[in-house]
Amino acid sequence: MPTPSAQTQPARFDDRLHPTPPIYSRLPFITTGKVHGSLARAGKVRSQTPKVAPQEKKKKALYNRRFVNVTLAPGGKRRMNPNPEGKSGST
């Protein structure tokens, strides 16, 4: 019958019974399975999708219409709001 003190102590590795330690103590890390696959398939989805011409953005088109493609009188300056209402305007 084991003594009560032997039951309370945690189980320890006995070198006499096992000359080599268990596998988990010999490895510096525990290897796990791969999660996302190999890099051989990287970029697969992007290369399979059809090429679509980019659409012109609304704000860029508005900027071009207001400021870039405008003909000004000599010495004229294009402003953001040429006819403001209120204090700073003509009314």
Automatic annotation (TrEMBL):
Any Gene Ontology biological process: translation
Region (Disordered) location: 1-21
Molecular function GO terms recorded: structural constituent of ribosome
Keyword vocabulary terms for this entry: Ribonucleoprotein, Ribosomal protein
UniProt biased composition (Polar residues): 1-10
Domain of life: Eukaryota
GO cellular component annotations of the record: cytosolic small ribosomal subunit
InterPro entries reported for this sequence: Ribosomal_eS30
Family: Belongs to the eukaryotic ribosomal protein eS30 family.
PANTHER family: 40S RIBOSOMAL PROTEIN S30/UBIQUITIN-LIKE PROTEIN FUBI, RIBOSOMAL PROTEIN S30, ISOFORM A
Protein name: BQ2448_2143 protein
Protein species of origin: Microbotryum intermedium
